[in-house]
Design a protein that fits this description.
Layout: E1 2-6, E2 11-15, H1 21-27, H2 137-148, H3 152-165
Antiparallel strand pairs: 1-2
Length: about 170
Amino acid sequence: MVIKVRNTASDVIVYGDYTDLKSAVKANKDVLRAASLGDADLNGVDMAGAYLCHASLAGAKMKEANLQKAIMFDAVLTGADLRHANLTCADLKRADLRRADLRGANLSGADLCDAKLDGVILSGANLKDVRLRGCRICLVWHMVRSYFGCRIPRLIQAVTHMFTQHKL
């Protein structure tokens, strides 16, 4: 299998005898900057610490993937399936997560500053110590509702908690 990835200097071709895309991605996770992996099936793959900045992962299936401490700033993850994924301490600054499904995902300690979060699904997600600076307030309201599962009467209390706990 041949995977074409790009770095800042030139195109890089990664060659290898891989049985499937998952093993190729896992073996080359350090050189996946700006990789085009849209709609890829990466369910359950271990990409802890992967360098995926500027990568295109739109529509990728990454359910239960390990992306702990992954560097994914400016990555495109629109419509990605990240249910129950481990994104602990992941760098998702300026990432495009619009319409991504993050139900049950662990985002504790993740950096989502300036991320695009329109339509993101966060039901049951762990948002402890998530950094959210630069997110539009309407998106924060959506996240608060997902995080606390609250109705409008409890929303003011939840927003206050979110601003103090998550340092907005």
